[in-house]
Amino acid sequence: MIDKVKHHQALLILCITLLCPPIGFVLAFIGLCRDFDHWKTYIFCIAWGLAVFAYCYVPTVETDMVRYFQYLDQLKGIPLSEAAAIDRFGHQRNYSFIYYCWVLTNLGLDRLVPAIPVFFIYYTGLYVTFRVGTDLGAKRRDILTYVGIFLLTLNFFGIENNVRNVSAFCMITLAVFRGSYLKKKDLWTLILYIFPVFLHTSAIIFLILRVVVGILQHIKCRYQLMFAFLVSIPAIPAVLRLLYESLRYLTSDNLVIHTLINVIKTANAYYTLTDAEWAVAAAQSGSEQAAKILYSVFTLTALGIIMLHWFARFRNVKPFGTRVKKCLSIGLGAGQAAVSNQESATRNVTTVPFESVAERLSLFLDYEFFVGGLTLAMVPMVMPEYWRFVSVIIVFGGVFYLLTKENTAGYPIAKKLLTVFLILAPLCAALWGRNWILYTDGVQTLLHALICNPIVIILAKLCGISLEFLV
Q1: Regarding predicted confidence, which is higher, 250 or 64?
Q2: pTM of the shown model
Q3: DSSP labels for 384-453?
Q4: 3-class SS of residue 350
Q5: Which residues are registered as beta bridge partners of 59?
Q6: pLDDT digits 0-9 by tens, 313-347
Q7: CA proximity to 292, closest of 172, 180, 387, 392
Q8: Across the strands, what pairs with 337?
Q9: Contact 29, 45 (CB under 8 A)
């Protein structure tokens, strides 16, 4: 009887979210705190609510999203071949992005351009956190704590304006998670690897990271090599400068080589062009410098936690314990048992060796380590490119956060480091919240979100297009 009531409550909140997203957004949090059995429904409602805010976003200054809307206006009513020739933002070879924008703008759905990436990024972060948490049998409090850290720390204002970078990076990282942890090496995983490269050229960096991590899995001294990479980070600007000087006059029609050359040239420019107008503005912005410090601390803390797991292995301490925990059987084991436990994330659990979860996440943790290292390498850049990389760490941070919480045989200091995230979260939220308030018409955005129903709008647009063809 109770199960049926909870099921109906979840469906009711889902319907409310689709009709009035801001109200459903709040109710989904309440439902999530009371009912973990339907967490997939509730995280959908949360991500949907945030996507609708992006859909109704009304900027008050010329942000990146304003320039994207101008780009969409150029694509209206022209053939796809002509759209591919427009290179306003250097998108000429970003075929995924061109097709994505061309389709949506010619359907009259320009507002979905920022909304879809916001939904994808937030749903992905919430899904990975709950998936790993339930597989580990983590406490409800611990899972919800990282959900709060994730939502507060991730720069929502930046995400809704960014559109391409972070979503492309998260797609490849999700592909790594699917392939290494969920063992889903299917067509969808392949698409998640390929599509982002044509969404933003810098996504090729994450593909290279995946190849490097895959190779290192077969090398016994991989942790020493990864630590050497971390130590060599200060030399990256000089290496980029050398590569730039060597390749600056090189041209190639090969897509991969062309992309790599562009990435190197762009990265070098972000390190060296300190006198440009945008560079001076970024350097003189107090909020930008404060954000750089906070997100650098977040990255250093994440790297420290991952490295503590390594050191535990070096000392023959199994970092994730040898005990057997009650974990959700979601692709991790066979057999089920019904157990009632208020501290557990769910009711239905099975007995699975705790280390099996950690072992599946070993490659993914190594991958996150490299992302963190590249984040630190980009901190000296005048432009705040680092935040695009640290966003990936935040979105998938539930992995190392919950592993550390459930670890009983590693270094105790690792759990103490988690407190740093609790301190940083409200500070980061204050910074990006300030930007949202200053550069967004908050009242108009909220009013639009209250009365906006994207499903009805999309259906109306599609019906209108169908009628045009019929007439």
Answers
A1: 64
A2: 0.88
A3: -THHHHHHHHHHTTHHHHHHHHH-SSS-HHHHHHHHHHHHHHHHHHHHHHHHHHHHB-HHHHHHHHHH--
A4: strand
A5: 440
A6: 665 444 444 443 443 333 333 333 333 344 444 43
A7: 387
A8: 349
A9: no
